[in-house]
Design a protein that fits this description.
single chain; alpha+beta; Ribosomal protein L15e; 5 helices; flat; ribosomal protein; Ribosomal_eL15; Ribosomal_uL23/eL15/eS24_sf; Rbsml_eL15_core_dom_sf
């Protein structure tokens, strides 16, 4: 582990809890590969642990395929939503919850916004 190599004053002892929730979604995706992650949410916490619930959907089930409210997740474009940060926890960690002029630097992503601001684009005839 990295914390065993680093000296004490360089170790990081805090976690980003929205990121932990994203990682838990990915963890369940690897454990149960045939299911798709729909969403996840906080349940409870004590002094040591935080408890979350991850909602998984079996896309091969006939009830899911025939239900018009949920069968959108059966499409191939929704594979591995949790890896791309498209679940609610992923969007929260990426800072995409807000709207308006206060959050314009979060979209489409922080990296794309930084690249757009750092790039000088000039017209050919000016």
């Amino acid at each position: 582990m990295l914390s065993e190599i680093l000296p004490y004053f360089l170790r990081v002892f805090h976690f980003l809890w929205p990121r932990i929730l994203c990682l838990e979604e990915v963890h369940y995706m690897w454990k149960l590969g045939g299911l798709r992650v729909l969403n996840s949410y906080w349940i409870n916490e004590d002094s040591t642990y935080k408890y979350y619930e991850v909602i998984l959907v079996d896309t091969a089930h006939a009830a899911v395929r025939n239900d018009p409210r949920i069968n959108w997740i059966c499409n191939a474009v929704h594979k591995h939503r949790e890896l791309r940060g498209l679940t609610s926890a992923g969007k929260k960690f990426r800072g995409l919850r807000g709207k308006g002029h206060l959050h314009h630097k979060a979209r489409p992503s922080r990296r794309a916004t930084w690249k757009r601001n750092q790039t000088l684009s000039l017209r050919r005839y000016r």
